[in-house]
Design brief:
This protein is of the alpha/beta class. It is 42% helix and 15% strand. It has 2 domains: 209 residues, P-loop containing nucleotide triphosphate hydrolases (Rossmann fold); 94 residues, Helicase, Ruva Protein, domain 3 (Orthogonal Bundle), CATH 1.10.8. The chain contains 14 helices and 9 strands. The longest helix is centred in the last third of the chain and has 17 residues.
Length: 316
């Protein structure tokens, strides 16, 4: 009698794979960057996309907002933008004889701070409390922001005309910084011959509910990190503080960001524990904008410099 071999059991597809696939159909050839951006949101962090104009920074933010079903508001940062344009303002109401607060665009689930470094540092700093505490204080009254709450900021390289450097305190609020770069030849060919990207974004259906994203964020926080894995994270952080390459090393907040991002990366891979490769995958995005190259005041080290930490620190 012929015995049939059992069919191999395929692992169940991750529930976020359709989201990643939909985004990859619009932003061509950037699967790793899309996965890193989604991991950032799963970790409850804010995302900074820095690159040349025209490579898809704004489009990526629009795509993430659409497929995740988030309430979305875009703020175009300019040199004359004021903090009240972001947070809101109280206006006198004659009918009631009192001032009424009119909330600004920050009261949305996802904020696109487009070309954030074209605004003055004073305006940029208006986002600090919102990004850190998910609330804003106006005229002595604290108002909670919706959940989930994300800021996706785009910025042009600092050597371009009309840009202001982001304050270090604000840079540190971004969990991950990434670059998109030019598309590969095949991806650019498909882009030129294919459908208009803006039309594709408009036609994207919401694939999640906000409460699903909140639930997955809670699940990410339960991903196990062993003592040896935490030793590895600490060794990376300590190396950044001792290395002669940097003016100052990674802060405790950066260490927490690294661990949280690694948990989200592991979650996307369908694992219930963090492995060193997860830490290595997210380290350039987490550390690249937080490390200042020694001898280059005002210039942030590149992600390639952050990768030197991986080479310098052995896995326990």
């Amino acid at each position: 009698m012929l015995s049939l071999k059992p069919l191999p059991v395929r692992p169940a597809a991750h529930p976020l794979e359709p989201v990643l696939a939909a985004a990859s159909r619009v932003i061509l050839g950037k699967e790793d960057q899309i996965r890193l951006a989604v991991a950032c949101l799963l970790a409850g962090g804010h995302l900074l996309i820095e690159d040349l104009p025209g490579v898809g920074k704004t489009t990526l933010a629009h795509v993430l907002a659409k497929v995740m079903g988030l309430n979305f508001h875009r703020i175009q940062f300019t040199s004359d933008l004021l903090p009240a344009d972001i947070i809101g303002v109280s206006v006198y109401d004659r009918a009631s004889g009192s001032f009424k607060f009119h909330p600004g665009p920050v009261f949305s689930q996802l904020i696109l701070a487009d070309e954030v470094n074209r605004a003055t540092p004073k305006t940029q700093s208006a986002l600090l409390e919102a990004m850190e505490e998910h609330q804003v204080t106006v005229e002595g009254e604290t108002r909670a922001l919706p959940e989930p709450f994300f800021v996706i900021a785009t910025q042009n390289p600092s050597n371009q005309i009309g840009t202001f450097p982001l304050p270090e305190s604000q840079l540190d609020r971004f969990l991950i910084r990434l670059e998109l770069g030019y598309p590969g030849r095949a991806a650019e060919r498909a882009l030129l011959a294919g459908e208009d990207r803006r039309a594709m974004v408009v036609d994207l259906p919401p694939m999640l509910e906000p409460h699903q994203l909140v639930a997955w964020q809670a699940q990410v926080r339960t991903i196990h990190a062993s003592g040896a894995l935490i030793d590895y994270v600490q060794a990376l952080v300590e190396q950044s503080r001792q290395s002669p390459l940097y003016e100052s090393g990674l802060s405790p907040r950066a260490a927490l960001a690294l661990l949280n991002a690694a948990r989200a990366w592991a979650f996307l891979a369908g694992r219930d524990k963090v492995i060193p490769e997860d830490v290595q995958a997210v380290l350039p995005g987490v550390a690249g904008h937080r490390l200042r190259a020694r001898g280059s005041p005002g210039v942030q080290s590149s992600a390639s410099n952050a990768r030197l930490l991986i080479e310098a620190v052995p896995i326990p």
